Each structure stands twice: as structure tokens, then as C-alpha cells.
Amino acid sequence: MDKKDFRETALYLRESLNKKDVEYTSRGICEAVTELEVYKNATDICLYMHINNEVILDSLMNDAFKNHKNVWLPKVIDKEMNFYRYHKTTKLTEGAYGISEPESKEILSPDEHTLIIMPGVVFSEDKKRIGYGGGYYDRYLNAHPCCHTVAVCFELQIFPDIPTDEHDICPDIIITDERVIY
Q1: At 74, is the pLDDT very low, low, confident or very high (cuts 50, 70, 90)?
Q2: Going from the N-terminus, what domains does the chain have, and what CATH number goes with each?
Q3: Is the model's pTM score more than 0.90?
Q4: pLDDT value at residue 129
């Protein structure tokens, strides 16, 4: 199977999940993130706005605010993704691919205290990742190697091995509803 086949299979499986189960399981995944040292030590938390039955990060966002961490959301401008500051009062507008983006002007300057929570479509046991195919996270992380990364997904998105390209960046840690992969 090639990347496209893995993507189609994983998206089909993820879309078949019950919405209530996704909400419940997402809370457990987010709780597991908050227990990581890399999360506890981070001052800047980069999240994403969920689409297509992805892990919902609302409880993680609430925890970050409660613990006085800076929250950042991705915004795509001219095929380039950056993270923009998000407050509870920040207006969200529809952006690239129909995903909500913050109307903030403040762009993150990442450092070793930055944690990026990565979405993805397919992952492997050895932490390889296939996203939606745009390469936004790969380019961002290649330009900012100081960032720590945690990918979150459902166990059904994990395969023993998947094809990747040389430019694909693997997350440091993957958290599913069943385990943590270091």
C-alpha cells in the first residue's frame, strides 16, 4: 500500500467512530498529554482545531489556560503554516481547508519550551506519520527543530509500518486511547 491507500483506510476507520466515543476518548488522550513532563515544562502549547473525527483537544486547551500556558493555533497563509496566539476571546474564522483559524496577529517564536500537539491520519509503531498530504507540519518542524512534538490519535490509526518520505518528520511521542509510544 502507498500513502494514499493508508490515508483512505485510516480516514474510513476514523470516520466510522461514534461521535460520543470520540468525545469521551479524546478527554482521556488529552489527560495523558497533561501527565507528560514535556507538557508540564512547556510554556507554549500549539494545538489544532479538529476536523474529520480527529482527537478533540478542548479539554487540553482548558487545562493549558488553567495552568497559565500560552495557547497557539495554526493558520495557513500562502501555503505557509505558522502558529498564532489564541485567547478564549479570540475570534475564529474559516481558513484554509475550511478549518477555523484565529484572527490573532501575534505569531509564535518557538523555543525549547514549545510543545506542538500534532494531528495526523496514519501513524506507525516506530512513530512515522502520514498527514493529509500538505506537508505543513513537516515544513514547520524542519524550520523549527527546537520544538517538542506529541501526536494524538486513536489506536485504529496505528499500523505496524507505513511508507514515508525523507522529508517526513516523526513526532517525539504518540498518544492513543490505549497507549503512549515513546
Answers
A1: very high
A2: 3-181 (3.40.50.10420)
A3: yes
A4: 97
